[in-house]
């Protein structure tokens, strides 16, 4: 099966992506300013044709891209992923006019996208959104409220914004809107976060939107959000697997070379067993990610459960592997600029964003019991 044994062409493409990331993308990433959109890096992703593949690839191909880039340049991986996350609702649910205006610009790397779902009081519980779309005329609304912890904010060129159009209707009362950054009443500020990629807050003060800005159907915004997250959750797992593999590779090299106690570090059974455990968990996570992505591509009914499992296991695994790698490297891994110091900062956020680990466990349990009830 493709999910468990990649074709030679896929393996070759992954190797090519790792090379491109190391030689073409990492130098641009190193020139970027942490906490801000690196537009030169985004443009290069467009030049290399990687951004356009976000809209032509299946879930497995997306996972292979993210895993490969993450091994060599996490900044490039994140820039690619955020373009996909912000623009996928436009590609999948937008009108012909919306797609024509934004998708080519996202593909070439000249427009930066953002996915604006989370709020100060509605992170894990996405159905509890309070940003309100007040009716304004026969076919318009005014958006009022806040969004917070939005990747690429406040520097994105457009936002997929989820707002409540029907009070008291829970998930069924949310509508998705495409909101260009230059709309009056839309302002934002950057947040100083542990993760090095840009994250910010948005304030919407009676921002005007019309029927032409709706993504999907009015009241169907939660479906737009979940469709996007079901696609991207396995690929968050792929990002995590790429980081775990980078940490594992660094650890193998270090322990094979490092002199300690009359031999090499790898000769100590306690070290060798830790490395074996790191490799075991990384491979298990990789296989679960590939299986979830393949299920998505095949239109399987159990995608929500598989996507949640893949995201959960891979992100928790990456945290474990990177932490073990830091321990085995010692103090050098804590020095600013070391690969593992960078990965240690990068690896923490994926256990929270796009659904925290606790949320993924809730989804898994819900799907399991639903299957039991359907028998």
Automatic annotation (TrEMBL):
Oxidoreductase is among the record's keywords: yes
UniProt keyword Flavoprotein present: yes
Protein name in UniProt: Acyl-CoA dehydrogenase
Cofactor(s) needed by this chain: FAD
Annotated Acyl-CoA oxidase/dehydrogenase middle domain residues: 114-188
Family to which this protein belongs: Belongs to the acyl-CoA dehydrogenase family.
Keywords, in A-Z order: FAD, Flavoprotein, Oxidoreductase
Gene Ontology terms, MF aspect: acyl-CoA dehydrogenase activity; flavin adenine dinucleotide binding
Highest classification ranks of the organism: Bacteria, Bacillati, Actinomycetota, Actinomycetes, Kitasatosporales
Domain Acyl-CoA dehydrogenase/oxidase C-terminal: 219-368
């Amino acid at each position: 099966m493709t999910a468990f044994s990649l074709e030679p062409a896929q393996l070759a493409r992954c190797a090519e992506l790792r090379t491109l990331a190391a030689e073409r993308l990492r130098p641009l990433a190193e020139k970027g300013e942490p906490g801000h959109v690196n537009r030169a890096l985004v443009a290069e992703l467009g030049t290399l044709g990687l951004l356009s593949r976000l809209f032509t690839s299946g879930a497995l191909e997306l996972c292979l891209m993210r895993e490969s880039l993450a091994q060599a340049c996490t900044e490039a991986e994140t820039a690619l992923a955020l373009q996909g996350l912000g623009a996928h609702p436009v590609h999948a649910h937008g009108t012909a006019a919306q797609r024509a205006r934004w998708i080519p610009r996202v593909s070439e790397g000249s427009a930066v996208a953002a996915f604006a779902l989370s709020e100060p009081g509605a992170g894990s519980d996405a159905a509890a959104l309070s940003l309100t779309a007040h009716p304004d005329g026969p076919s318009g609304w005014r958006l009022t409220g806040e969004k917070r912890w939005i990747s690429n904010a406040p520097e994105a060129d457009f936002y997929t914004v989820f707002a409540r159009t029907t009070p008291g209707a829970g998930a069924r009362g949310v509508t998705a809107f495409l909101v260009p950054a230059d709309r009056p009443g839309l302002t934002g500020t950057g947040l100083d976060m542990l993760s090095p990629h840009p994250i910010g807050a948005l304030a919407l003060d009676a921002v005007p939107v019309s029927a032409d800005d709706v993504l999907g159907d009015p009241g169907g915004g939660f479906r737009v959000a979940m469709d996007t997250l079901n696609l991207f959750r396995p690929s968050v797992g792929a990002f995590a697997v790429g980081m775990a593999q980078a940490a594992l590779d660094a650890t193998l090299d270090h322990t094979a070379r490092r002199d300690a106690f009359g031999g090499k570090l790898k000769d100590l059974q306690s070290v060798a067993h830790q490395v074996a455990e790191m490799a075991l968990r990384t491979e298990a996570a990789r296989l679960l990610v590939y299986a979830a992505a393949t299920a998505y591509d095949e239109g399987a009914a159990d995608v929500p459960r598989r996507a949640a499992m893949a995201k959960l296991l891979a992100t928790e695994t990456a945290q474990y592997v990177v932490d073990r790698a830091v321990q085995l490297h010692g103090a050098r891994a804590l020095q600013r600029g070391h690969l593992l110091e960078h990965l240690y900062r990068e690896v923490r956020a994926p256990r929270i964003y796009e659904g925290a680990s606790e949320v993924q466990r809730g989804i898994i349990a819900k799907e399991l019991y639903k299957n039991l009830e359907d028998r």
